[in-house]
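Recall the central idea of this unit: under ordinary conditions, the amino acid sequence of a chain determines the structure it adopts. In this exercise we apply that idea directly, starting from the sequence alone.
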Amino acid sequence: MKRAIPRLRTLGWGALGWGALGLGALGLGAIALHFWHLGQPHALVFDEVYYVPFALDYLHGTPSFDAHPPLGKYLIALGLWLGQWPAAWLGWPTLEVEDAWVSPLAFRWLNALVGSTIPLLLAALADQLSGAYSPQRRRRFAGLAGVLMAMEGLTLVESRLALINIYGLALGLLGQWSWLRAPRSQHPARWRWVTGIALGAAINVKWNWAGFWLGLLLWDILQNSSPNITPIPPIPHSTWRPGWNGIPWRWVYLGIIPAATYALLWLPHLALTGESFLGVHRQLWSMHQSIGMAEHPYCSAWYGWPLMLRPVAYFYQRFEHTATTIHAMGNPVLWWLATAAVLSLALAWLARRITLVGWAKPACPSASFSGDGHGQSPLPILRSEFQTHGVVPFIVINYVTNWLPWALVSRCTFLYHAMGMAAFSLLGLAWLMAQWLEHRRHRPWAMALLSAIALSFWFWLPLYLGMPLSLESLHRRWLLPGWI
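Accordingly, the structure predicted from this sequence is:
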């Protein structure tokens, strides 16, 4: 048994005991939220009207053209195929979709299961990202990241319907976690293979999930090329050295493998349709260029996402005195605090970088570090959060790569396109709160913010789960005019 404990700790989930118990509780809570009354509404909701028929077409061997790559529809089809037997055995209620009788539980359960892992994946990513710090900081950061994601709201809504965004988010987080996990593994190449496959698969859900790939690539280049950064922990199997035919390993794991994965996942679709790889991509590009900005009442511009100015109403049903709605919106208090957190981190990081200009480099870049990741240096600003393991630049770079590219998109965009951006803003808030909890003076502020986030989540929970509310109660939840 004594041998097993160090072995288990290499999994990257922090200390055992209370940490494992907390993760278990987090996972069970996420499952309960994602599966509660999953069959309601008993109808196709929002883009389910497209994705469920697309998935059925794959099961029938006659796929239709869609505006996105095929992996998300493959997975919804897999859920339908696996769910048909329990649906028949347990007598789940069904509805008619394209001359087929299917249960909402059958086409939603896999999304809910994957969505339940998102808080754990973000916690795991935070744990690996803060590996240079003390175990206490690491546990707090990971725990807060997981808890905040569980109370985020938008990911919960997306997970409870047969939509495809949740698969891209899960695969993107998995890919980044495995890349950070690799240097601490006895077999780093295996984890980097996982990274390449996961990121290529994420892009095959939707092209916009390439933000995870781009953010990781830019951060890794910055980590290894900046003269002011000592990568922590040391990387025994450098991604810089030549690999296949002289190609650096980074470009194998973050270039060739994701591209090959993306292309291979198209093969079932191309085999069924007889289309060519280039031909179908010309169609996709042409279709995205033709989508206008004012074709949907819930279009929202990219610059309004950090303040959550225009959520999306997925479902609305009104009765005489009550109404049921499903709103694709985040937890307002959490969303705004997270936006403020990532903005403050970005400004502080940029200020440090500007201050560093013209300064002398430290005499010994490999100076030793204390348990919390800070070392003794004649230039203390160089031994900042950025100098240690790049936690802050990781958050800022990934936030930017999942947000600012949307400024180049002229088509109609929606708040759910901000899911990747929101995940990294939550990491930023968790990072700040983890530091506040270490200091007695700041601890009450962190606990007050956490309580406010929890109360906000409880207040808006009926809109995430589609619970009936009186009209008066519903109107109290529209804080901004664009939320209706």
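Residues 1-16, 229-237, 358-388 have pLDDT under 50 and may be disordered.
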